Amino acid sequence: MTGTKSILVIGGSSDIGHATALRYAKEGWRVALAARDIEAAQRNADDVRTRSGVETTVQSLDVLQTAQLAGFVAGLSVLPDTVVCVVGELGDQLRAQADPELATTIMRTNFEAPSLLLELFAQRFEARGSGTIVGVSSVAGDRGRASNYYYGAAKAGFSQFLSGLRNRLTLAGKVRVITVKPGFVRTRMTAHMKLPAPLTVDPDRVAEDIYLADVTRPRDVIYVARRFRLVMTIICALPEAIFKRMRI
Amino acid sequence: MPAAALPGRATASSNPGEIGLSGWGNYPKVSTELLAPRTPAGARDHLLGRSGVVARGAGRAYGDAAIGTHATISTHCLNRMRSFDAATGQLTVEAGVTIADILAAFEPRGFFLKVVPGTKFVTVGGAIAADVHGKNHHRDGGFGTIVESFRLALPSGEIVSCSRAENAALFMATLGGMGLTGMILEATLRLLPIETAWLLQDTRVAANLEAAIDHLESSASATYSVAWIDCLARGAALGRSLVYLAEHAARRDKELLGPELAPFPSPRMSRLSVPALFPGWLLNRASMRAFNELYFRRGAAQQGEPRLVHWDPYFFPLDAIADWNRIYGRRGFVQYQCVIPQARARRVLADILDRVSQRGDASFLAVLKQLGDGGGPMSFPLRGYTLTMDFPVSDTLFGFLDELDALVVDAGGRLYLAKDARQSRATFESGYPGLAALRDIRQQTGATTRLVSHLSARLGI
């Protein structure tokens, strides 16, 4: 049954994209990876196919070329059962403060482009009457902090987009939307950072939780690791008068 | 990748960008810059401008083999599989893929590796560099025999394909070459088709070392054989052992002995079948003697009746205990593994065991295996018997091990570089006549001054 299902990972060159593709492939899902860095995506696709034996394809996509998104979705040979968008870029906050172009790229990569793309999938899924849309946002979007507020603001926008989309599609029918909020994940994006071990997870864990929320035990919003939900609840509950003086 | 997420125990160092790194034995701990390239091409780029550098896989070499004198290039992120051909069993993987990864992906599809070392947590790159051996070396040879080819990055930045047909001398010198010929980026292996995940195990009791060697010798036709020696036994019982012989169980064997068992049980099932006794003997030294007695009697009770054992506990009993190396504490430990040529093995191994038992601080179990002829010029195996024991590092240890070395050298034996942390140049040079071939290759590829590990610097390779 699951052998006929398929997943499309947008951001298939990333570590979380790779791990997610592997997790679904393990259950027999056909896998397609879309990415700007086609060579890196191909390396991931080869790995997924070799480990799982399932059919794996690669497509070139630069999400920032937003004019081409509609053509990309229309040109898909197979409309996937699940689309997972892991597109994101942390960017350099200090540089972004001085460089409006970089600030714009961070905001477009984390909010504008993924939102425009997932809207297109929402429409196709709605017309078909089924599908799951998974957006990988971030706990950074729960409250703006000095250390990464361009990234955080964009992720906040993306989380709200997913919330609204879920609201619309739930009222309309069977299409599901899952918001994934990872905390610290050991990936290429965080390679240069010192991460607090108890709150840091591997990409495999994010992939596992995505698969669980999609297939095994349907959920709307998931935090990875789960204890981050509590951490963020506390951080969000702090009065602004206190929060604004904190270095976190 | 933050340093803490990389294999090996890393600690902060006073020099920025440098960390204290050690092997699996936690001895020695030395300072090095740790690099973690994301792609094979990135690894090559790291190699280009550097000297005093060596590759590191899972950090399972015990001593100082996988620590560069200046920088260490981790293959942690070179963990992608490239392609598999089910018709030929040929699998191509990047160097950082582990044996555990391969077994997880291919055992359910009916494939195994013909040669596996005592832990599945080693990388393919490391297994080639150390030309690791398994319990079937006397019959089937070392890891090199299942390697069809590999891609090697030279210090010049050139990437060359090596096989028995192409760059053959470089191929052979890289087997057991401890990463000193270049950095392995990718390798093609030949997998072994199997009918079930089970082994047909036959246990023999050996009253002493003499009997253990007799058993190993007389059962040379068995595919897998290994003797676990009770190091607490002394006198006439010195070298008392259990000899485990095994074959891959065919579907027919499994139907006969375990019709209720799945041919390829899920990993969860196989974990449950790991003998729960192991943590006891490792973690509670006081109960050791009792444990060995129990272990021995349990094995003796199984004598003569073949039984089905899953491959995981048969090949990798210690893998069931995460971080077992930590029980030796901060100072770490040395795993001493020597091989003694056939003709001298009985007398010399008895002498070694006797000294070890009198000293009294070795691990409680030692491993005795039969080896065949080596693969590459620097491969550890030679036709004879290999003995392996752990010793906690102490002030008197190295003097004692020097005494053992003298016995090994005198018998024409050698020590395994993947375990070594302390042998002298003289011991090393007398044991490895193939060193000249490795030095020649290093000269030719410009590796001599560029690819330098703490091990190669210590031993003058």
From TrEMBL, chain A:
<keyword id="KW-0560">Oxidoreductase</keyword>
<dbReference type="Pfam" id="PF00106">
    <property type="entry name" value="adh_short"/>
</dbReference>
<protein>
    <submittedName>
        <fullName>Short-subunit dehydrogenase</fullName>
    </submittedName>
</protein>
<dbReference type="InterPro" id="IPR002347">
    <property type="entry name" value="SDR_fam"/>
</dbReference>
<dbReference type="InterPro" id="IPR036291">
    <property type="entry name" value="NAD(P)-bd_dom_sf"/>
</dbReference>
<dbReference type="GO" id="GO:0016020">
    <property type="term" value="C:membrane"/>
</dbReference>
<comment type="similarity">
    <text>Belongs to the short-chain dehydrogenases/reductases (SDR) family.</text>
</comment>
<dbReference type="GO" id="GO:0016491">
    <property type="term" value="F:oxidoreductase activity"/>
</dbReference>
From TrEMBL, chain B:
<keyword id="KW-0274">FAD</keyword>
<dbReference type="InterPro" id="IPR006094">
    <property type="entry name" value="Oxid_FAD_bind_N"/>
</dbReference>
<dbReference type="InterPro" id="IPR036318">
    <property type="entry name" value="FAD-bd_PCMH-like_sf"/>
</dbReference>
<dbReference type="GO" id="GO:0016899">
    <property type="term" value="F:oxidoreductase activity, acting on the CH-OH group of donors, oxygen as acceptor"/>
</dbReference>
<dbReference type="InterPro" id="IPR016169">
    <property type="entry name" value="FAD-bd_PCMH_sub2"/>
</dbReference>
<dbReference type="InterPro" id="IPR016166">
    <property type="entry name" value="FAD-bd_PCMH"/>
</dbReference>
<protein>
    <submittedName>
        <fullName>FAD/FMN-containing dehydrogenase</fullName>
    </submittedName>
</protein>
<dbReference type="Pfam" id="PF01565">
    <property type="entry name" value="FAD_binding_4"/>
</dbReference>
<dbReference type="InterPro" id="IPR010031">
    <property type="entry name" value="FAD_lactone_oxidase-like"/>
</dbReference>
<dbReference type="GO" id="GO:0071949">
    <property type="term" value="F:FAD binding"/>
</dbReference>
<feature type="domain" description="FAD-binding PCMH-type">
    <location>
        <begin position="27"/>
        <end position="194"/>
    </location>
</feature>
<keyword id="KW-0285">Flavoprotein</keyword>
